[in-house]
């Protein structure tokens, strides 16, 4: 063991909180590793002279192995394969890192980043592994840092806040918090990761009351490019705190989220699925639009609608929920209640069980994409978008195992107003304007059909955008958590917010480690993949 004792690590972490978070121009990576208790002279760093990327990662992974032993997995090990199949989509499972590092604690995340800098071996970090496209949270030939062991769930003694490690999935969080009649504003489907969902925004069952997940984080503990472990909150590193509320993986690796706790007695709520046939579609889009618009009248209520074809029949599947029991009694659902569903599972339920049940429709191991846009609230667009989707659908007829779905959600004024808490966030949404998020979700079997699928979705989204523009209801925002590899999410936050995010990144990460050495996902100046053939927002 070449880490010189945990006291030293603790001293470094505590010391760093008092110290400036800014990396100086004479920053010395070797010294930073030594400050972390790493005996660099025992690592194979002299071989760094070669600097080919293969040897860079060989050196970095060997060094991690020397320091952390079993926590480093390489491709000849069974545990390596069981790790890679833990990604939701096959596009991510197919990516082969040089090694996987199961980081045991925040200090080891810091060591991994510094070793990446020293060796110039690139890295990625995996939270829940639900981002669908290749390289989002896994890296070909590099170091994939798994955050899974950072799985604290700790309620504060006054029950007002909860520390949640980034390796948790929402199902675990809700099950644990149910014991205290609490919840947090987090994901709606059990196996989704805390890390990715919160850093991209985070739409919850409770968002029209409390806002998005990112707006209910009181403070972040984050490992910066320098290896320093700092707190970002409304009072500490305030600019970094703002940037992390939707800025994704561009600023550091978050090792703890401290959330505001919300009261949820008995873990009780209400929700379920109502399925409708085509004769109800026009009235369904009305019900959807009116519920988005009327949300402030009863923000306990929420909804999404999935449009699809099931066994040759067009159906719409509306997910309706309520943040308390007996949502069926709220007047807010009156319009939905006048429609005849062919099936209806709405019931009193518990948050943890509900989030688990919603995962049934999301199998692992397939090619997957989410791909979306935003428009201003407009009932005509709600009507048109689904028609466009159904018109274009035949172009996927020959795609094996294809399952395209068009999804509608609302960004209500309640959600947007809550974004102003604690100094706001970088998403660029205006509280005067409720919005619709419209995205296509699709799985299919073969890589040979990728172009057909992406071209189909591009056509759908381009046509929706054109109709929105005609009506002056287009909007540049792209929700990171539903965006595809071809979309430039940060550009959609608007030029001022983008420039501000870039300034903050240069301040905390002057060598642009999180832009260059961690190349995956939505970078500040680009989409993950540039391809002019496809819809980019
Ligand atoms: C079935 C399903 C249901 C969903 N439901 C919802 C929902 O209800 N609400 C919603 O808003 N979104 C939802 N999403 C979208 C979801 O938020 C995104 O897919 C998100 O990226 C998943 O986060 P993850 O940690 O699981 O993914 P990962 O692939 O592990 O991470 C995504 C990105 O975040 C980075 N990252 C993760 N953790 C950290 C960290 N601690 N520090 C720095 N970077 C980190 C990763 O490096 C990667 O770049 C859903 C997605 C699916 C597939
Ligand atoms: C960086 O620090 C190491 C170890 O303290 C030292 O040997 C090396 O000379 C330093 N490099 C520079 C460029 O200062
Ligand atoms: C699909 O529809 C056909 C008729 O259109 C019906 O015979 C068949 O049972 C249906 N299959 C399922 C799984 O519903
Ligand atoms: C709502 O559903 C519950 C059972 O889930 C039932 O007892 C109650 O009567 C229903 N209320 C209304 C207004 O339909």
Could you characterize the architecture of this molecule?
This protein is of the alpha+beta class and about 525 residues long. It has 3 domains: about 5-145, 2-Layer Sandwich (Uridine Diphospho-n-acetylenolpyruvylglucosamine Reductase, domain 2); about 155-265 and about 495-515, Uridine Diphospho-n-acetylenolpyruvylglucosamine Reductase, domain 3; about 270-495, Vanillyl-alcohol Oxidase, Chain A, domain 3 (3-Layer(aba) Sandwich). It is built from 18 helices and 20 strands. It has helices at about 5-20, 30-35, 55-70, 80-85, 90-95, 105-120, 170-180, 195-200, 205-210, 240-245, 280-295, 335, 350-355, 380-390, 415-420, 450-470, 495-510, 515, and strands at about 70-75, 100, 125, 145, 155, 160-165, 180-185, 215-225, 230, 255-260, 260-265, 270-275, 300-310, 315-320, 345, 345-350, 365-375, 405-410, 435-445, 475. Strand 5 and strand 6 (about 160-165) form a beta hairpin. The termini are far apart. Bound molecules: flavin-adenine dinucleotide and 2-acetamido-2-deoxy-beta-D-glucopyranose (NAG) (3 copies).
